[in-house]
Design brief:
five-stranded mixed beta sheet, Rossmann fold
Length: 152
């Protein structure tokens, strides 16, 4: 299903969430969007333009608020500073089972610096290509890895 907004992505994900055993929140959604949208081109008037922004829905937090105990949810934290602390905050506040910390340098790149964080600790994966990162995420999400430590 093709979506073009955070609201559409939330609606599409909501349809599948309840039946999923493993959810990996890997899509990058902008944190803000224009308060008002226009169907027409905004004409250039020769002066600065101010655009008021509003937050987009937090898809991960919204869906995981009703997560089943037997579901595993893995998220990403793209951070520019205080990465570990902010990733740990997201792990708890969004009710995730694990989170992958990365930086903006991974956007559009074939590789990046990745760190796995869960309730047992932190594992610095270092520089990996994205396929290897995905393989490691699936290994961590395997029931034999997370289930014994699954947060109640």
């Amino acid at each position: 299903m093709r979506v073009t907004s955070a609201e559409e992505m939330l609606a599409a994900a909501r349809e599948k969430f309840a039946s999923a055993d493993l959810i990996i929140f890997a899509a990058a959604v902008a944190d803000f969007q224009p308060l008002e949208k226009s169907d027409e081109k905004v004409p250039k008037v020769g002066t600065n333009l101010t655009i008021e922004l509003k937050p987009t829905p937090d898809i991960t937090a919204t869906l995981c608020a009703n997560k089943r105990k037997d579901q595993i949810a893995i998220g990403f934290a793209l951070q520019t500073h205080d990465g570990e602390a902010k990733a740990r905050e997201k792990l708890i506040s969004k009710k995730l089972d694990g989170i992958v910390l990365n930086t903006p340098a991974t956007l559009g790149a074939e590789s990046g610096l990745f760190t796995w964080i869960d309730f047992q600790g932190l594992e610095n994966w270092g520089s990996l290509d994205k396929a290897e990162c995905a393989r490691r995420i699936f290994m961590r999400a395997d029931e034999s890895v997370l289930r014994p430590f699954h947060r109640e």
